[in-house]
Amino acid sequence: MTIEFSVNQATLMKTPMETFLKSCASAGFTGVELRRDETFAYLKDHSVSDLKRLLDELHLKVVSWNAIELFSLCAEKEFKKMLDYTEKLMKIGNQIGCDLIIAVPSFSPDSKFPAEQTMPKTVERFQVLRKLASKYKFRMGFEPLGFPTNSVRKIDDALQVLKKAEADKLPPSGLVIDTFHYFLGEHPASAISKVPKDKLWLVHFNDCVKKPLDKLQDADRVWPGLGFFDLKGFSSGLKTMGYSGFVSLELFNPDYWKEEPLKALKTGFAATSKYF
User: Fold this and answer.
1) DSSP result, 146-158
2) How many CB atoms lie within 10 A of CB 58?
3) Which of 31, 157, 37, 152 lies closest to 96, judged by CA?
4) 28, 152, 203, 212: least CB-packed within 10 angstroms?
């Protein structure tokens, strides 16, 4: 079991790109997950070569792009826009060494399709993304969301999406499992060990303040160890599975965005690494 640590840009959403990356490296992380909007904002005043040079200097790997958001049940017009920015990210990824992009399913109340079309449409759309990914030698990751109203909140359902989508015979896809969504989806901590090892591509790691599950929001995420998630049981399940890869710190807590970046990420690194 070989674990490396990365940090998602959402953890320090308001921090400028260069400061964020330098803080990540100084705090001990070897990987980063870059967010779509923040990347495009940075590239308004910088080149892709500038970004690659900075990453190389800091010895940081871009683990993934986040994310193709709510892709599965949106209007066709919106999906076409997603394909446009997804292709742009893949082209950039080819230049900076990133080969994974994450797709996130829609919420059921926002669906533009009848309920019986939820799975077929999700699979159909995911196959479109897989075809695009294949063109750019990218890997397509799928991240279920545990919110009660999301269309794919259980790991078993997410695995079914992958199984059905892979009927296209293109390279396999994998899951991105976020502890926030994992526990919000009411999965037992140790059950992570039952996920096929070859299907778990990335782990998002965080804790959460204690509230009723139906009241939790992304902003309730806190450093690992400060909340009520059974992260010890979860990490034990990963060890049982033999997971090797990145564990990525991902929080959306606005309070942390106000902290000095390096100090915050040192706290986050220590809080995450103690579980592994």
Assistant:
1) -STTBS--SHHHH
2) 18
3) 31
4) 212
Half-sphere exposure of 101 (CA within 13 A, CB side): 28
Residues 6+ apart with CB under 8 A from 171: 130, 133, 134, 139
CA angle 100, 102, 104 (to 5 degrees): 170
Model pLDDT for residues 97-115, shown as the tens digit of each residue = 999 999 999 999 999 999 9
Length of the chain, in residues: 276
Q: Which residues pair with 147 in a beta bridge?
A: none
Q: What is the mean pLDDT of residues 158-168?
A: 98
User: 226-239: b or e for each residue (b if 16 or more CB lie within 10 Å)?
Assistant: ebebebeebbbbbe
Written as six digits, the tokens of 3 are 């674990």
Kindly indicate the confidence band of residue 191, based on its pLDDT and cuts at 50, 70 and 90: very high
Please identify which residue in the block is written with the tokens 């997804």.
86
Q: Which domains does the chain have, with CATH numbers?
A: 3-273 (3.20.20.150)
List CB contacts of 4: < 8 A, sequence separation 6 or more. Answer: 30, 31, 245, 246, 247
The residues facing 81 across adjacent strands are none
Per-residue model confidence (pLDDT) at position 259? 96
Q: Residue 221 pairs with which residues in a beta bridge?
A: 208
Rounded to whole angstroms, the Cα distance separating 158 from 136 reads: 24
Percent of residues, the chain, with pLDDT higher than 90: 99
User: Which stretches within the chain are classed as H helix?
Assistant: 17-27, 36-42, 48-58, 76-96, 118-135, 155-165, 179-184, 231-241, 254-257, 261-273
Over residues 5-29, the mean pLDDT reads: 97
Residue 104 confidence (pLDDT): 98
As beta bridge partners, residue 101 has 65, 140
Q: Give the containing element (helix H, strand E) for 106.
A: none
Task: Report, in angstroms and rounded to the nearest whole number, the Rg of the chain calculated over CA atoms.
Answer: 18
